[in-house]
Every structure is written in C-alpha cells, then in structure tokens.
Amino acid sequence: MILRLTFIALAFLLLSRCATVPLTGRHQLILFPEDQMVSMSLTSYSSFLKENKLSTDAVNKQRIKNVGARISKAVEQYLAANGLQDQIANFQWEFNLVASNEPNAWCMPGGKVVFYEGILPYCQTDAGIAVVMGHEIAHAVAHHSNERMSQQALIQYGQAAATEILGHNQSDTRKALLSAAIGMGTNVGITLPFSRKHEYEADHLGLIFMAMAGYDPNEAVAFWSRMANAGTGKQPEFLSTHPADANRIAKLKAAIPEAMKYKKN
Length: 265
Fold this sequence. Notes:
three-stranded mixed beta sheet; 9 helices
C-alpha cells in the first residue's frame, strides 16, 4: 500500500511540473521556481568573483563580451519571436574571463557566463568561442540546473522510500548496504545518462544559437576535435557525466544541417 501511494505521488508530481525545452521540444521535470534558482546563482556568482581573479587580458576579455552579446541577443530575439520570452525572464547577462589555465567555461541560471583563459587556445577564433558560448548558454536557457536538482530531489525521495520498504525489519547494516546499492544503481542507470543527455542537448542548441548569431556551426567539430586530442585517461562513457568524444562529434555533425537553417549571413 505504501509503495503504491509512493508511486501515485511521484506520478502526480511528474505530470504536474512538466516543462518543455525550446527547439528540441523535450519534456522535462522542473520542481523549483526559476527565480529561486537565479537568486541562488547570483549568490554563488558573487562569491566566485570575490575568490577568483579576473583576467587582465583586455583583448580576450572584450572578445568574450562581444561573442556573448551577439549570441544572447540572437537567443532573446528568437525566443521573443516565438512567444518563449518567459524562458529567460529572469536573465541578466554578464560575460567574464578569469585568470585560470583550466580549460573550462560555464553559464549559471540567470545568464552569468564565465570563461577561463585556459580554454581560449582550444577556441582559437571568435567562432570557436561561440561554440563554447552557445553550449553554455544553452544549458541555462534549457534550465538544466533546475532539472538536475529536480531529478536529484526525486531520486532522494525514491531512494528513501525504497530503502524503507525493502529494508523493513532488516538490521541497520543491511539497510545501509541496500541504500548504497540503490544509490549506485541510480547513479549509473539514471543520473549519469541524464547528464550526458544534457550535454548532447546543449551541443544541439548551442549549434543553433551560434548560427542565429551568424557564426559557422561547422566550427564545433573542429573545436571538439581539438578538445578530444588534448584529453587523456578518460572514463568509459557509461561512467561519465560527459559523452565520449567520438559520439559527441558524430552527433554534432548530424545536427549541423539543422543549425545551418538558422544561420544569418
């Protein structure tokens, strides 16, 4: 009876809080108010800027800002033209370059984008920067952070319920082992594939976003090839949050014709 009620509650939750990702049309579970996500992000972003040194490279700082402005404007125009402006209603765009050799970049909910100097050699050109910028902005526009938090909340609820039901009348030690086993299963079977789905979706949307801003989506293949050639000792794809390089590049190539339909000259 408890198990049935749990499943009914979960099903109701899934049906009542379903959203749709722009362009891909994928349905997603969003449990947290987006303004709450943005508020938390702003706090984290402010802390990050206090703890990390901004780049003194004036030329590359301006390149990041210019590419970011072009892509964010193109995204805003597309969403507004299609009645989807609420998707980024709480966004306040900002683009910064930090002094770090790490090859990384990210965009927080609300449109706060940070590039690390270490990723610029892989970008090489403004179009290469646009590949990364489009990808990271796509994560924010698709509300992947909210979806991931929602999924984790749902998993934790389900794990607790399953452990309690299946571990009824079991010792604390057996309950702990059961909880660990369930946790490993959900990580490999749900969480990691879900993260890879987000990466593929951000790649797809990123191609379209950079094309909307007038950049050539074909540059994405060159960029990810450079990143792949630099990587060593990577985990198998099924144990990784990111797709295998060959799979990612293959999907990018397949998505380029669609992205080209949005390209502005």
